[in-house]
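DATA SHEET
Item: assembly model
Revision: 1
Owner: S.N.
Input lines:
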Amino acid sequence: MRLFDPQGRPVELGDEIGAGGEGTVYEVRGNAHLVAKTYKSQPSPEKAAKLSAMVAAQANGIATMAAWPSDTLCSRPNGPVSGILMPRVRDHEEIHNLYSPAHRKLKYADKDWVFLVHTAMNCATAFEALHSLGCVIGDVNQGNVLVSKQGTVFLIDCDSFQFSANGRVMPCEVGVVHFTPPELQGKSFRSVTRTPNHDNFGLAVLVFHLLFMGRHPFAGRFLGSGEMPVERAVSEFRFAYGRSAAALQMERPPWTLAVGDLAPTVQNLFERAFVRGSEAGGRPTAREWREHLSALKGRLSSCPNDRGHRFESVLSQCPWCRLVQAGAPNFFASITIAATGTGTFQFTLDVGPLWNAIANVPRPSTFFGRMPYAIPRPITPTPLPPLEPAPGMRKYVGWVASTTTVLALATALILPFVAYLATTVAVVFLVWWLGMYVMSPIWSEARRRSAAVRRNRAELAKVQAQWTSSAKEFDQEFQQELARLTQAREQVRQLRGDYQGELQNLERDSYQRQKNQYLQSVFISDHKIEKIGEGRKATLESAGIETAFDVTDARVARIPGFGPTLTASLLAWRRTVEARFQFNSNLGIPAVERQTLNFRFAQRQSQLETLLRNGEHRLRAVHHRARERMLALTGEIIEKELSVMQAEADAELAIDRKWT
Amino acid sequence: MTFEQVPFGTNSFAENPEPRVPCVLLLDVSSSMAGEPIAELNAGLVGYKDELAADSLAAKRVEVAIVTFGERVETVCDFTTAEQFFPPTLQANGYTPMGAAINQAIDMVTQRKQVYRSNGILFYRPWIFLITDGAPTDAWQTAAERVKQGESAKAFSFFSVGTAEANFDILKQLSVREPLKLKGVRFRDLFNWLSNSQQSVSRSTPGEEVKLENPVTPSGWASV
């Protein structure tokens, strides 16, 4: 395809590079630094004027930071604008591949926080350069900011930026909600004139993503009720990391850096960018960001414990280590791993201190080994309620019952008839007399109190059973966790040995490989071998036995005419050849294999380290839960035992009074 | 303090805090799917993964879960980012317990949103994408009611696709959106469309409707 520049000179287009909704991008023949973009539909006169104005406004150096149009293109000489020329960008990634830790570890494995700060600074520089041209980016998003391996930033989709031409503002009609400032949320982009202050919100969000491991400043835990989608959070200025986050019912998500991990000067920049009032124009400018980020980059400290960790020197503790200890992933693990290289891997993990911490967590059974009991104490029985006095009649009924009984016994042998009558009367009165006791208020009180004793004893037994089973469960849980950690410790101890073993395997393989190569380079035809003349050599050759490598018992035996003597002679020759082989340890293990091995062990060590580092917390958690629960149960048991004692004393009091 | 297992790579919220585009694929694996349909469905899933994984933004944002219904309702794969999604090889067997499957998908979506919220992760409206070649063999009326409620509360979007043999009368009652009729066994085209749509969604604004490419065209994979 051939297009023309405004002077009417032809521009030859090469292969297509990519296509989007708006146009297609082609190589430019004969110019490796430029690409051409052609629009699918003819740009409006306004858009064409904007593109021409952008070309006219281009400044030195802008081509290194943005796909700024360097010229317009027409499909025929002096025709309407149908495309643009712009700088070509190579070997850049969309910025989300850098700020997202998961992809950074793959695509920028050796890059640490310094690099992220550095990239953020370069973002600010690019914004500053564009703003100085009177341009507003408008549509800041994770896809149109590209980053190189050097951390330089390149902005694309410049033709959608807001730019003024002939005194008219050509708006940027698009935008992504995550990067759109609160005051523009929900508004149509066609009708607003964007300002650098709007861009400065997007820039602050980008910087935040880079510094805070891909987190969005407004994505937090909403503590209120209802949904808190990002557009609402942004438009209500709910900066989840800010000083007024709590007042806004927002909480920073787990395992994130805090703004307190930055120097107050940088904290202030984020506050100014995201708080209510910033819409009036107070957001930090690109220049302020550049200056502060440059200062930040200059004052970072290295962590003594992890070579991948860099942080604000004002802090007393490495925030990345703090996160790891809290159970977060090591956000910069890939740096140590990338640094393992091809040398012999150094195992740096010292299990000692980690294990001391683990071993210091007391086993739950040490503090609830024995069933708790209440210390017996004097108990004041609950006084009996005022009881109706026994009916006076009871005495007479008792007297009749006892008298007739005596009478019955006395007359039993001599006056059977009297005895019979007396017995009948005695039984009736005895039953009556007993009935009067059983139905008496004191008896029912005694029954009530005895029932209370039984009930309390049953309840005590139940709590005690709970105590026993809980104690067993917690102890088991603790022991299981400990067993897992012990296993991890054993694995760490075995790492060195395993590594040496695998290294030896690789060495053995490489020894064998070198030796085979050597044997394959020693030709039978070049050597004098006892009893093997030219004829026999030719026979061997025709059977495919050409080098010392081919000389094996099995292969030679298959050749007609080669008996034990000749075979022995050949094998003896092979042995002399073998004896001359020298292993070159410099050629040893191929670098790739060694690196793969190192990488694997670095990963394993890192996983085990995380497990062991979390070990103490996990055990303490079990311990803590066990303590809470067992103390609660202990309280219940003691309370129940006292209830039992009280009930027993109460019952005793009533029982003592039963026959009075 | 609470403890969680630390998931790997893009499945870890700490290492991949990108906004999520959750999608439950509700796949019919009743015995009538045996043969070519299930083979094409499996091939479609493989293509779907490849397309999403090749797009580094969608690979981090789109989350897939698969619930199949046939002999039983089964969560073959719980929510995972496209990058960590390994397409299963499904086998056809049994009846069509579609109602129970829809209920399960709705429960999963509800739970997932809770997980996002507690981890401070932004998310787009979840999709439930039903593909069937028959009619439910269990009670589906409650499920239909829940779909209506979910759609009107914008809690999720429910899409249904049936093959020519599917019962569209019931699908129309199940889904607020017009059910789509798959032409032949063009599962691969369907999944290609699905991955393209999710790539657009993953670049859009959470909470906003995305204009999806219309699959009901002469060259598209669906008819109404």
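QC remark: Chain B touches chain A through 29 residues (CB under 8 Å).
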